[in-house]
Amino acid sequence: MSNHVDIEGSQDGAVPAPLRVAVVIGSTREGRFGTTIADWFVGRLRRHDTLEVEIVDTREVALSHSFGAVTDHPSRAEATETLTRADAFVVVTPEYNHSYPGALKNLIDEHHVEWQAKPVGFVSYGGISGGLRAVEHLRPVFAELHAVTIRDTVSFANPWRRFDDAGELADSSDAVTATKAMLKQLTWWGEALRAARAANPYGA
After folding, report:
1. Which residue has the higher pLDDT, 38 or 171?
2. DSSP of 42-78, one letter per residue?
3. CA 187 to chain CA centroid, nearest Å
4. What is the residue-averaged pLDDT of the chain?
5. Listed residue (18, 27, 61, 21) closest to 41, CA to CA
């Protein structure tokens, strides 16, 4: 069986362009586990030839709310271009004190039209809750920005006990199943909203 996400072609039989997915890494902490989670997830995405994946790492972006950062820094411009190109987003977020990281909020707040009329999926991690409380805080933020959040999520409770030193997931069956469900929804919304924006630009 093929590993790619099934996407129907257009009515004239043409194969649609790959869906551009920007994966946003939300944590900037020293020793963060977010890159291990993101690497595993991106590896799953890159098995699908119907998807193009780019990374936006908040730790590498100069945000105006960060000490000494300037809004015209090249890393900020690069992040903005990536978000603009994207047809869909996946946010990889930890849960800090029942919510999500401040740097992630800064990145979200410093952009607006880049999120509009696009779907947002979530991959979360944390303690026993698996970061789901952070996701629930993010949903109304993205709703305010006219984005569509995906119902199904991928979450990892106590992930540092599940991944080995090489970043491999010991028992991946539940995570793979959750990833497939989330990607199916993300792809549907990504294709539908891309076509809608092309036919009638959002907010025009």
Report:
1. 38
2. HHHHTT-TTEEEEEEEGGGS--TTSTT--TT-HHHHH
3. 12
4. 90
5. 21
